[in-house]
Specification:
The structure holds two protein chains of two kinds.
Chain A (H helix, E strand, L loop, with lengths): L3 E4 L2 E3 L6 E7 L7 E6 L6 E5 L3 E2 L7 E6 L2 E6 L9 E6 L5 E2 L3 E4 L1
Parallel strand pairs in A: 2-11
Antiparallel strand pairs in A: 1-3, 3-8, 4-5, 4-9, 5-6, 7-8, 9-10, 9-11
Chain B lengths: L2 E4 L3 E3 L5 E8 L7 E7 L5 E8 L5 E3 L8 E5 L4 E6 L8 E8 L8 E2 L3 E5 L2
The chains are: A mainly beta, B mainly beta.
Chain lengths: ~100, ~120
């Protein structure tokens, strides 16, 4: 199985901050990497796929980069609606998710 | 509007059977695959398996193979997740999600079905 490790597990930030979340794969997944946002009591929502392609309707302050085993999700200027938990997911071999990063105030 | 609509919460006893549905609308159902994802308390997401919506092909995570069955009824645009013998450890939220090909991102998700297994 491909293991996905996110860091940090929790991130404290303020509105307007630039936020970066890292996701590492235990082996190369090329660019078969997606990022999701989940708010309490809600289903995950797709933000980015193929490592850097923004999903439809997602604000441009979100961006993704990386390939192989190391990936980042960046929020350029954190907004109140962005406080949530973020998951990475590889789909190179089956699908596995990172453990999540909670972005809190 | 693309929607995946799941059923309400279920409370079952260990050993009981259960089938939960996921109905797609707002898109051509048979052009997409459906995956099922488990989320246990503590937020970890686990991919369980997938089915192509014509019903021809299924693939399961080794962690769930043999414990659940994924099926589809394309005539009513509905996918199913089924257990034949629930365990307390199956207590979790279960999401269905759509994807355009066998190995691709999950672009739309259902709202989830909470399954509680308790004696």
């Amino acid at each position: 199985d491909i293991q996905m490790t996110q860091s940090p597990s929790t991130l404290s930030a303020s509105v307007g901050d630039r936020v970066t979340i890292t996701c590492r794969a235990s082996q190369s997944v090329s660019t078969w990497l997606a990022w999701y946002q989940q708010k309490p009591g809600k289903a995950p929502k797709l933000l980015i796929y193929v490592a850097s392609t923004l999903a439809s309707g997602v604000p441009s302050r979100f961006s993704g980069s990386g390939s192989g085993t190391e990936f980042t999700l960046t929020i350029s200027s954190l907004q109140p609606d962005d406080f949530a938990t973020y998951f990475c997911q590889q789909y190179s071999s089956y699908r596995t998710f990172g453990q999540g990063t909670k972005v809190e105030i | 509007e693309v929607q995946l609509v799941q059923s309400g919460a279920e409370v079952k006893k260990p050993g009981e059977s259960l089938e939960i549905p996921c109905k797609g609308s707002g898109y051509r159902f048979t052009s997409y695959w459906i995956s099922w994802v488990r989320q246990m308390p503590g937020d970890v997401l686990e991919w369980m398996g997938t089915i192509d919506s014509s019903g021809s092909y299924t693939d399961y995570s080794p962690s769930f193979q043999g414990h659940v069955t994924i099926s589809v009824d394309k005539s009513i645009s509905t996918a199913y997740l089924q257990w034949s013998g629930l365990k307390a450890s199956d207590t979790a939220m279960y999401y269905c999600a759509r994807h355009p090909s066998r190995s691709s991102h999950l672009d739309y998700w259902g709202q989830g079905t909470l399954v509680t297994v308790s004696s």
